[in-house]
Design brief:
It catalyses: UDP-N-acetyl-alpha-D-muramate + NADP(+) = UDP-N-acetyl-3-O-(1-carboxyvinyl)-alpha-D-glucosamine + NADPH + H(+). Helix content is 27%, strand content 27%. By secondary structure, the protein is of the alpha+beta class. Bound molecules: flavin-adenine dinucleotide and NADP nicotinamide-adenine-dinucleotide phosphate.
């Protein structure tokens, strides 16, 4: 059945920054058919469409003069199992973290390092979500999307998604593909990734010698709860800037002026700098412009203390970008999707 369109709907409950803008039209899709019908009706009425999931990677700077289509489809299943490798599939509207917990409860590993990321399964491929040394591309087994130009269904392989650091074919072609469901190839035997950040140390503190996937997930959840603001309490969209990848020459130049710079050599001879370190070094940690601020513990996270508008958040972000460019010669790229 077609879901009705509502008009002039506040998007405050639908974005984790808690920005209060209005959607001209709003509807939800609980299955493929509702998604398809919403797109068809919008095309007929010549109304643009903005697809959203959990709204945890959005910065809404104005009222949205479009149909906002909220993906609310549910369902997760085991597709195949050869005793070692198991392919699972989930619908786009499934909340990500409960899906990860469900895979762990099935005795499957592969997604544990991606625990407690907000948002939905359908948005995860958009920026190839990643944390603690794992990205979804590492366990990705395919997805099904609707081509918004032709209305055709299409299956994508790993190669076809062209995943990169916080990047994908879908992110580079906004508005072309509506992701309907995503598949992951998971393992019955754990291949642990513990060498990133404080994960191993936290497990040691917890007295865990031979961790299970669930123990790794629990450790990562405890680290994240300490470091990151909960959007339910303080509006934010997680990391606001990508970590810049720069030339060795630029990294060396910065290191000669700032010997403690946090830098990680990358394949291909470049160097990834921790954007949070640059922002903190420049004195922005805890800074506030009215209700738009930089988190007091994690300078990569911009926060809305209550009534900030998206435009105010964006203005603060631009000030930080200009300052980091002037001080370090480094361009910071925004991570959330700007509307
Ligand atoms: P939304 O914000 O709703 O949408 C994001 C983009 O995807 C938009 O452009 C939207 O149009 C598009 N989109 C949404 N659903 C679909 C669909 N079904 N088909 C096509 N396009 C779609 N990200 C990480 O990578 N790693 C982290 O560790 C991480 N930690 C975070 C911690 C916090 C506290 C917060 C608030 C955010 C964090 N994020 C992280 C960012 C964010 O949670 C992820 O990018 C997440 O995948 C976004 O999902 P969403 O459903 O909220 O997407
Ligand atoms: P952190 O552990 O304090 O590390 C700071 C930065 O250094 C991170 O951005 C990370 O890069 C990088 N880093 C750490 N160890 C590394 C290693 N061994 N090799 C290469 N790079 C390394 O970071 P954090 O802010 O608490 O976040 C922890 C993890 O969760 C990170 O992977 C981060 O990306 C992810 N996260 C993402 C978001 C988001 O919205 N995108 C929000 C919160 C947390 P990377 O970011 O490239 O991993």
């Amino acid at each position: 059945m077609t879901a009705a369109w509502q008009q002039q709907v506040s998007l405050k409950p639908y974005n984790t920054f808690g920005i209060d803008v209005r959607a001209r039209y709003f509807t939800q899709a609980h299955d493929d058919e509702q998604a398809r019908q919403a797109l068809a009706e919008a095309a007929e009425r010549q109304v643009p469409v903005l697809v959203i999931g959990g709204g945890s990677n959005l910065l809404l700077t104005r009222d949205i003069d479009a149909l906002v289509l909220h993906m609310a489809s549910r369902g997760r299943r085991l597709l195949s199992d050869d005793g070692e490798r198991v392919v699972v599939e989930a619908e786009a509207g499934e909340p990500w973290h409960p899906f990860v917990q469900w895979t762990l409860a099935q005795g499957l590993s592969g997604l544990e390092n991606l625990s407690l990321i907000p948002g939905t399964v359908g948005a995860a491929p958009m920026q190839n979500v990643g944390a603690y040394g794992v990205e979804i591309k590492d366990v990705f087994a395919g997805l099904t999307a609707l081509d918004r130009e032709t209305g055709e269904l299409r299956d994508f392989t790993l190669q076809e998604c062209a995943f990169g650091y916080r990047d994908s074919l879908f992110k580079r072609n906004p508005g072309r593909w509506l992701i309907l469901r995503v598949r992951f190839a998971l393992d019955r035997t754990l291949r642990a990734h513990l060498d990133y950040g404080p994960v191993r140390q936290r497990l040691t503190e917890q007295g865990v010698g031979q961790p299970t996937a669930q123990a790794i997930s629990d450790a990562i959840c405890s680290i994240r709860r300490e470091k990151l603001p909960d959007p339910a309490e303080l509006g934010n969209a997680g990391s606001f800037f990508k970590n810049p990848v720069v030339t060795v020459e630029l990294a060396d130049k910065i290191r000669s002026a700032y010997p403690t710079v946090v830098a990680y050599p990358q394949a291909g001879g470049q160097v990834k700098l921790a954007a949070g370190w640059l922002i903190e070094q420049a004195g922005w940690k805890g800074h506030r412009d009215g209700d738009a601020g930089v988190h007091r513990l994690q300078s990569l996270v911009l926060v809305n203390y209550g009534q900030a508008s998206g435009a105010q958040m964006y203005a603060l972000a631009q000030k930080i970008q200009a300052d980091i460019l002037e001080r370090f010669g480094v361009e910071l790229e925004m991570e959330p999707n700007l509307y």
